[in-house]
Write a structure and sequence with these properties.
245 residues; mainly alpha; 2 domains; 13 helices
Length: 245
């Protein structure tokens, strides 16, 4: 399957055309119809589950994480989709503006261009895909357990997916960081907040800031104990001891 890409100008023009013809969806090549239908169906599944569940405290995060899991699982099983595709902002612009703008609109409305194409790190479909990729624990079930931690919010996605260092992202270290953060208890988080009452940063933001700074001077894989010990030390530096093995 050949997938198009958009630069910012092309995406803006395509979105303006879509809005002029709203609620009709953009015309696309026949071979892309199944892609649209599949992603719409994934979104529908998540929305229906969200409506049925009464225990969800943060519906926006639930939708982002659950749809992100489904989108990630779907795309990784497509023969035309690769990491190189995922790293191409133009692909996500095209997907957002021409394939499933209705899905993005359901989450962000029709006038929030940042989440369609304008700011690469804020393109919603891109953001939630990379969130799941960086949180990946080997399979869908293990990853879902991690990203479903009760203390995770949309801020978790923001601080995790957008905080890359100048040397790039050490994927394995990120996966250990998010794993250990999911294992921190609510009691520990409350205690941490009390100790840091004068600091507006929560634990995860502090850990990710420490990671950004630390990666400037060391390679996580070269740390004694590898990425696993590196991640634990970040939490120790922030004032929280990780005892999980």
């Amino acid at each position: 399957m050949k997938i198009k890409t958009y630069n910012r100008g092309e995406a803006q023009k395509a979105m303006e055309e879509w809005l002029l013809n709203y609620p009709s969806l953009p015309n696309i090549d026949k071979h892309l119809i199944s892609l649209r239908n599949d992603i719409q169906d994934l979104n529908r599944q998540v929305r229906e589950l969200a409506e049925k569940r009464k225990d969800i405290k943060r519906s926006d995060y639930y939708i982002d994480s659950q749809f992100g899991l489904k989108l990630y699982d779907y795309l990784r099983n497509q023969p035309w989709f690769t990491l190189r595709t995922a790293a191409n902002d133009g692909f996500w612009r095209f997907l957002s503006v021409s394939i499933v703008p209705d899905v993005v609109a359901q989450r962000w409305g029709k006038d929030n261009v940042d989440h369609y194409y304008s700011k690469p790190t804020r393109i919603w479909l891109r953001s939630i895909w990379w969130y799941i990729h960086l949180a990946w624990q080997g399979d869908i079930e293990k990853t879902e357990r991690v990203v479903s931690a009760k203390h995770f919010t949309t801020d978790t996605i923001l601080n995790f997916e957008e905080r890359t260092g100048r040397k790039g992202t050490c994927v394995e270290a990120y996966r250990k960081i998010i794993y250990y953060y999911s294992m921190v208890s609510e009691e520990e988080l409350k205690e941490y907040s009390k100790k840091k009452a004068r600091n507006s940063d929560d634990l995860f933001r502090v850990v990710m800031k420490l990671n950004t700074a630390k990666m400037m001077v060391m390679e996580p894989a070269l740390c004694l104990g590898g990425e696993d010990e590196y991640a634990k030390e970040l939490f120790m530096d922030a004032g929280v001891e990780i005892n999980v093995t």
